[in-house]
Automatic annotation (TrEMBL):
This is Alpha/beta hydrolase fold-3 domain-containing protein. Residues 1-23 form the signal peptide. It holds the Pfam family Abhydrolase_3. The active site is at S236. Residues 480-489 have a biased composition (Polar residues). It comes from Knufia peltigerae. Residues 463-489 are annotated as: Disordered. Residues 463-476 have a biased composition (Basic and acidic residues). The keyword Hydrolase applies. Belongs to the 'GDXG' lipolytic enzyme family.
Length: 489
């Protein structure tokens, strides 16, 4: 992705021994994971892990991970900006929902209301990969997109990146593939990133993006989109945001808030046609056992026994924050709030939700995702769950051409098409694809039996992690206060 050959060589050369060792152990079936991963998968996972383990400052990580690779070939993009709503009702509504779902102990700051940038994306078949982008206005690009779509499916997409990395520009391969497979278009949101903008800035931006689809402010390219044609989608942290936005809407409806003033229009609060997410991160504390149990399949590093990340960014002017907090995304007191960690929501909060699709690997986040699926199902939601044995986090984006990824993308896209075109599922279903099967062979599983862990056990794991984070945060704040008062002397 835009890497120059010399940068690639500098990255790979020192890692040749690792590549050889991983390949040899896998081929000789000596590694713990060769029963479920082929050599290529194992080498890639080991390489990503080795590269991400080198700690770098926050500002550096954000700069390299948000770099725009440029637009060319069959990917059609049109940029637009949602002007900042002047009216505060949207933020007040968000605050109402946060208070409604919390227990009053959470500390957070209501963010500033800002303009939100977005990208429309679709895929135009038959265009050479290197064809330069047409030299027309953004509105012209939008018209081309509208001339080249064949379905009303509109995917409101939230990119992943642990809430502090990446950008719609880095996810165009994914969004254009979803657009290609559905014949529709994606609306990809440049939400604000932590740590500069902690929770709930992302949720406010996501809410504004959804309202802008329903009721476009003057000057934007698009016409109003009907809620039944919209699917919320995302990967990893973007999956978290898609679920949080859905829960926000459910909560506002439950509170009797029927409409929101948005740029002078009263926009009625309706749920989208569906939600479709890939490897969603639903427990901010990363507290469940699969973080350790599946670590050997994954490039995500498990947190230490007390919840510390081994890949914690090196200190710079952005991180740690002043005052310091335990998590890049939020204060420790916020970690078990359902809008930050949707896994903390009791099943009844999912009543009335639209159908949801979830796919995942045999990954570090396996437990939190399976438990999330079970809870939604038990709360009355219709869940379409697809697991892939031996695969790491977001594997469909890491190995886009593999048979597992192809199958995963087809299911993901098919769900988006179905749910926005009147083919809504009537019941839940779940399956796991067997390792090495090609084409993937799926074994059906009962959603009620998808995990060995009970909701009570999960709650205890999460609570324990939150307590560790609270203690760590308290120590850091005390130290910071001492430094502040010393600096004043
Ligand atoms: C965390 O809590 C402190 C007060 O305890 C508050 O000053 C700060 O704004 C909070 N930070 C975030 C990100 O919510
Ligand atoms: C797609 O876009 C091109 C411009 O890039 C336009 O000429 C064409 O008519 C559009 N429609 C279809 C169906 O290709
Ligand atoms: C995922 O991998 C672990 C081994 O790390 C295994 O115990 C677990 O059953 C796997 N899950 C599935 C669904 O295969
Ligand atoms: C989509 O709808 C078709 C036709 O009803 C059905 O066969 C298929 O299983 C559905 N796929 C998904 C992913 O819901
Ligand atoms: C890529 C990867 O995680 N490989 C692991 C496979 O299993 C061995 C243990 O046998 C680990 O050391 C590797 O890290």
């Amino acid at each position: 992705m835009g890497a120059s050959p010399s940068a690639l060589i500098r990255l790979l050369l020192p890692r040749i021994p690792l590549i050889l060792k991983t390949a040899l152990l896998n081929i000789l079936s000596l590694s713990e994971n060769s029963s479920r991963q082929d050599a290529r998968t194992e080498i890639t996972v080991a390489l990503i892990r080795s590269i991400t383990q080198v700690r770098k400052p926050m500002r550096f990580l954000q700069r390299v991970s948000t770099r725009d690779p440029g637009i060319k070939g069959p990917v059609l993009v049109s940029k637009d900006t949602i002007p900042a709503p002047i009216d505060h009702t949207i933020r007040d509504a968000l605050d109402t929902a946060i208070r409604e779902l919390g227990d009053g102990s959470e500390t957070y700051t209501l963010p500033e209301i800002v303009a939100v940038e977005t990208e429309w994306i679709t895929y135009k078949a038959g265009v050479p990969a290197n064809e330069p982008r047409a030299d027309v206005t953004e509105r012209g690009h939008y018209q081309t997109i509208m001339e080249n779509i064949s379905s009303p499916t509109t995917i409101l997409y939230f990119h992943g990146g642990a809430y502090f990395l990446m950008d719609p520009a880095t996810h165009r391969t994914t969004t254009s593939r979803l657009a290609k497979l559905t014949g529709g278009r994606c609306y990809s949101v440049r939400y604000r990133l932590a740590p500069q903008h902690p929770f709930p800035s992302q949720l406010l931006d996501a809410f504004i993006a959804y309202l802008s689809l329903l009721s476009p402010p003057q000057g934007m390219h698009h016409e109003p989109v009907s809620t039944r044609h919209i699917v919320f989608a995302g990967d990893s942290a973007g999956g978290n945001l898609a679920i949080a936005l859905m829960l926000l809407l459910l909560t506002l409806k439950r509170k009797g808030i029927q409409s929101i003033n948005f740029h002078g229009a009263e926009v009625s609060i309706e749920l989208p046609g569906g939600v479709a997410i890939n490897s969603p991160w639903v427990d901010i504390g990363l507290a469940l056992p699969s973080l350790q149990r599946n670590a050997h399949f994954d490039y995500l590093d498990p947190p230490s026994a007390v919840g510390l990340s081994k890949t914690e960014p090196l200190p710079d002017d952005l991180w740690p924050t002043s005052p310091p907090r335990a998590e890049i995304f939020c204060n420790a007191s916020m970690m078990m709030h359902p809008l930050a960690s949707p896994l903390a929501a009791p099943p009844k909060l999912w009543e009335g939700m639209p159908p949801i699709f979830m796919c995942l690997g045999n990954e570090s986040l396996e437990d939190e995702i399976t438990l999330m699926a079970r809870k939604m199902h038990q709360g009355g939601g219709i869940v379409d769950f697809a697991g892939f044995e031996g695969m790491p986090h977001c594997f469909a984006m890491v190995f886009p051409a593999s048979p597992m990824a192809r199958d995963c993308f087809e299911r993901w896209a098919k769900f988006c098409s179905n749910t926005t075109q009147g083919e809504r599922r009537k019941s839940s279903r779940a399956c796991w694809a067997k390792a090495f099967s090609n084409p993937p062979e799926h074994e059906d599983v009962e959603l009620d039996q998808i995990s060995q862990i009970s909701d009570e056990e999960a709650f205890k794991f999460m609570k324990k992690r939150q307590e560790q984070s609270m203690n760590r945060e308290q120590e850091a704040v005390t130290k910071w206060q001492e430094q502040q008062s010393r600096a004043k002397l």
